[in-house]
Amino acid sequence: MYKKNQRSEQPLLLSDVHALPERSLKYLHNSWADTFRREIFLRIPEEKFRVLYDPDPSRPNIPVNVLIGLEIIKENRGWSDEELYEHFLFDLQVRYALCCDTFGEGDFDLRTLYYFRKRVSQHALNTGENLFKDVFETVTDEQIQKLGLKTDQQRMDSTQLLSNIADLSRLELLIGAIQRLHRVITEAEKGLYAERIAPYIKERAGQYTYRIKGKQAVWVEIEKVGVVLHDLLQKLFEAYHDHEVYQVAQRFFDENFKLIASEVKAKTNNEIQSGCLQSLDDLEASYRSKGNQANKGYVGNLTETCNPANPVQLVIHTQTKENRVADTQLMMEALPELKERTNLNKMVSDGGYVSEQIDQFMRTYDVEHITTSLTGTLPDHQAGKLAFSDFVVDLDQNGIVTHAVCPAGQSAAISSSSSGKSFKLTFASAFCQECTFFQNHQCPVKSRKKNSLFTINLPKDRANSSQRRRHFESCKQEARNLRPAVEATVFQVKHKLRGGKLRVRGLFPVTRVFTCMTMATNLRRINRYLNDSQRGKFTSRKGRESFFVRFYDMFKTFFRQFGQFLFASGTCFIC
């Protein structure tokens, strides 16, 4: 039965916190725990989790905001579940952050946290509703409103999130699939297939593959073991086709092997897709090679505020997908929600978020997109030649050219081609004949002798890409000033991970952890801001003022003494 946590609204008058000495109590109120209590814990929307509990009268639940708060604290401190539970039992700072001011209050077993995660995950699987995302958005929106932050300018970046899986070869995964099938079949079936599978169940998969040397030998062994797996899958289909272990083994076989005239052949590396099975324990992790480094897991995408007028920047949106999902797809999924939640009108990103579809999205939602780089080839400006990007072209929300001006300042008459795939720009012949660019054969505009017109055909895709290039050149310095800090944000979110690897497997657990890591990052930023301990551009104003005051006083004293010395010696620079 669901019950709201009333204790957070009515704290105890006498508690272990109030028994602290005044000095310790002051330190506690200036620590992260007090910021967490006010800025996160008291903002958690408990009512959203009512759907997880039985409506009939029964034993009340452990407070939802305590369980969620523990998840965020865990990612903030980089603890394991056992370490988190110990700190909850004996650490007064953690208990104060969760409004449990007295030891022994709100005690529960660690498995309660596991059951809670399972319920939230099952709810997301059944309904598609991510309750942790709702918590993040509610808490962050209230923080932004309280701090008075501007959300019109935002920046975005993605990062690889490694799943908690071993880096196994195809052969190791293949043998592991056979070993798992062997565990689930009956004793009678084990005796029936003992001769075929005996070589693969005596030792671990890594021990078996260690003795096989050379790529050719490994390839021969893969096809040999693939035949055994195919035979097992056929014979066990009727009794085990609904079993999870069987389905995983069947998926692995389908992704890594093919049948040619009823003969099992292993697929080459080029034939295997990036979404193929990377682990028998994580069925959603995918493979991606980025920056000459192989990654197995997921991709996390962050969006944070970046208006220079903000005293502190907060992450306001997170996404988690299989790591084979492109950055452009992540941005297209995030843009409608960001436009609805915030006052977004400018997005800053790197070149990975550039595409024609993104340009169309930006025009549709009236958002300016500036980037630090672009993909594709550079325009040819040899011998002073002009390119399409030198023309000023305005596009409407549908990508239709509405206005065009050449580099010499002449406006063009615009019409669509008969095929509808390009635009025809027509310029005044008298102006073009006297134009220096045309006379020096530097302009792409051509003279049509048949009708004495000066025209140029501009394909729709070139119209979009050329203006993207023109906009990039005019805004690249602004983008380079605004974007780099988001890479520091990615580091701050992931800095507690060992080797960049998470402690969980599966898309939703990774999403939950990534969301909590982001909320922990916002917590640290708000705590530094409220305690006037920020670094960099927004260093303590009090500290800056005191430095300049001391600097000014030092030189004022020096010049006063120096002037007294000159006066006493009779030296005068005026004479």
Strand-residue proportion? 5-15%
Instruction: Give the overall average pLDDT.
Output: 88
From the N-terminal CA to the C-terminal CA, the straight-line distance is 94 Å
Helix/sheet category: alpha+beta
CATH class of the largest domain: Alpha Beta
Radius of gyration: 32 Å
Q: What kind of sheet is the major sheet?
A: 6 strands, mixed
Number of E strands: 14
Shape: flat
> Please, how many domains?
5
Number of helices: 21
Instruction: Give the name of the CATH superfamily of the largest domain.
Output: Ribonuclease H-like superfamily/Ribonuclease H
Share of helical residues? 40-55%
- Under CATH, the topology of the largest domain can be stated as Nucleotidyltransferase, domain 5
Secondary-structure arrangement, i.e. CATH architecture of the largest domain: 2-Layer Sandwich
Report a brief summary of the structure.
With 575 residues, the protein is α+β, with helices and mostly antiparallel strands.
Could you walk me through the main structural features you see in this protein, from its secondary elements to its overall organization?
This protein has 575 residues and is of the alpha+beta class. The chain has five domains: 1-129, no CATH class; 130-165 and 289-372 and 483-539, Ribonuclease H-like superfamily/Ribonuclease H (Nucleotidyltransferase, domain 5); 170-271, no CATH class; 382-461, no CATH class; 541-575. The protein has helices at 22-29, 32-39, 64-77, 81-90, 92-97, 110-127, 131-147, 170-184, 187-192, 194-201, 205-210, 215-240, 244-256, 327-341, 356-364, 429-433, 436-439, 460-482, 485-494, 507-530, 541-569; strands spanning 153-162, 257-260, 263-266, 286-290, 293-305, 315-322, 346-349, 368-371, 392-395, 401-405, 413-416, 422-427, 446-448, 453-459. Strands 1, 4, 5, 6, 7 and 8 form a six-stranded mixed beta sheet that branches. Strands 11-12-14-13 form a four-stranded antiparallel beta sheet. β4 and β5 (293-305) form a beta hairpin. α12 (215-240) packs across α13 and α19 (485-494) packs across α20. It is flat, with a radius of gyration of 32 Å. Residues 537-549 and 571-575 have low confidence and may be disordered.
